[in-house]
């Protein structure tokens, strides 16, 4: 109990006390007893409260706090017996400062002893220690996790991977917890599962995921202000339409990529947060592609073009495992997207387009980096499934090529962009350049697969892709 | 207004790359792109000149002259003929930065074997992942008064 003579009274309490003619010294004594100002104000505001009644209540409380006997008025005790309120409950209520009149009112209102006890528990917890501080159960501080960690930032700041020290660096092959508990925390037994389905590291892991997350966060960009939109000028009608068709196509692919990654993220358990972090940012990347290409299409006199046939998209959505989806999306599809971005950059008509495609090239390269290194990890752990992955890639390559052949608007737009216009000569030149880019893409794709550990795909890719692959002798001659 | 005094250096030489490194390591604009980690070979075969530049976190680290094999024992190497190097550097000097026809990305797709080459598709992708940092590096050569050896 603090010294009442030095206790300061909040101005709002002084105001109520003066209205009720209650001496300020009584207020100081109530505050010194640990009664919250709000509770004192409520008590004083009740009808019929007098200075004498307040004096009696506070004197009783001071007696109780100094170890004196708690006296239960006879009329309260009689009613309590009738209403089945134990004597101990009344003493706890009186110790908390409950006025006699209020206790009688509560019992007559039908409040049960159990309900009253619950309320009194709360009040005691809030007033615990006698100085207003709640009593806390601090046993959680003895949690058996590794303690005393002091990770020091390095040249790149404090990165996600740097936190993998001591037991926090344990990334098990199988994650045993089915809840949202972060890796390294201590589990509460019996909590319901969250419904994840991927618990094996090999099914999602990529050694570069933590780095890719940091990279994606640092290299984020804002289409609204990082693109010099003012640099755009009117283009010939056919060229503008071709740019807009390319923008429409990429916007659509961005939406599908978002749906696929977004659909798989809730399946992944939290033992491998580096992957979940990176894929969350990759989701953001594709949302930004959708945004920026829509902005480009609608800001230079054009508009959106025609939808893609979508055969490949529908095949991707039907993937039955994340590794399958990732290989098709992040290696096959992203390699073709890289080609589209490169064509966009190569044919850029202004600084705005150049910047858009430069940023996108960085974004898609990160996605390929995840895809190839995840597949590599998966194959290292499941070499027996090489044939299965190869079989699945056959299916996706067929569908991608089928989509390519069916999507005449896209191919036409690319030819116009590469040829510089829609005249017969320009389209012929564009077609020739498109073949050049297709050859680059095909070789780039098999290089990515080789980096993922599937070098044999060079010989096995779909025939319409293999047609473009440089023979080893040709490649060696070119390098010489 | 004081006239800016440009560093004079001959391309290709360690001194020339060191001059670029000095500019970049004092350039907050470069740091804003984010960290960049890659070992990059530079090949000027006709001049039999080979270099390795190490990009590390927010700055450029080592620059050293090497042999061809060491230049290829990197994440990727950038290879052009002497004339192509000269044209790119001159274009950057004339425009303050590469014009649309002379960016690293454009040159990469124009050369049948690419501007950035590697023996590993994953490591070559660092050229694309950090592309704007590398472009900024070469754009900074506009602040050097370059003398060509040939």
Write the layout of secondary structure elements.
The complex is a heterodimer of chains A (480) and B (150).
Chain A: H1 11-20, H2 24-32, H3 37-45, H4 51-65, H5 74-83, H6 87-95, H7 100-108, H8 113-127, H9 209-218, H10 223-226, H11 237-264, H12 273-297, H13 311-317, H14 322-346, H15 351-381, H16 386-406, H17 408-419, H18 424-451, H19 457-460, H20 463-466, H21 472-479
Chain B: E1 7-11, H1 14-25, H2 28-32, E2 38-44, E3 49-56, E4 59-66, H3 68-72, E5 76-79, H4 82-95, H5 104-110, E6 116-117, H6 121-124, H7 126-129, H8 131-139, E7 144-148
Parallel strand pairs in B: 1-7, 2-5
Antiparallel strand pairs in B: 2-3, 3-4, 5-6
Describe the 3D structure:
The complex is a heterodimer of chains A (480) and B (150). Chain A has 2 domains: 133 residues, no CATH class; 279 residues, Ribonucleotide Reductase, subunit A, CATH 1.10.620. Chain A is 61% helix and 0% strand. Chain A contains 21 helices and no strands. In chain A, helix 5 packs parallel to helix 7 and helix 11 packs antiparallel against helix 14. The mean pLDDT of chain A is 91. Chain B is 40% helix and 26% strand. Chain B is built from 8 helices and 7 strands; from the N terminus they run E-H-H-E-E-E-H-E-H-H-E-H-H-H-E. A 5-stranded mixed beta sheet of chain B has the order 4-3-2-5-6. In chain B, strands 1-7 form a two-stranded parallel sheet. The model of chain B has no long low-confidence stretch (mean pLDDT 95). Chains A and B meet through helix 9, helix 14, helix 15 and helix 18 of A and helix 5, helix 6 and helix 8 of B.
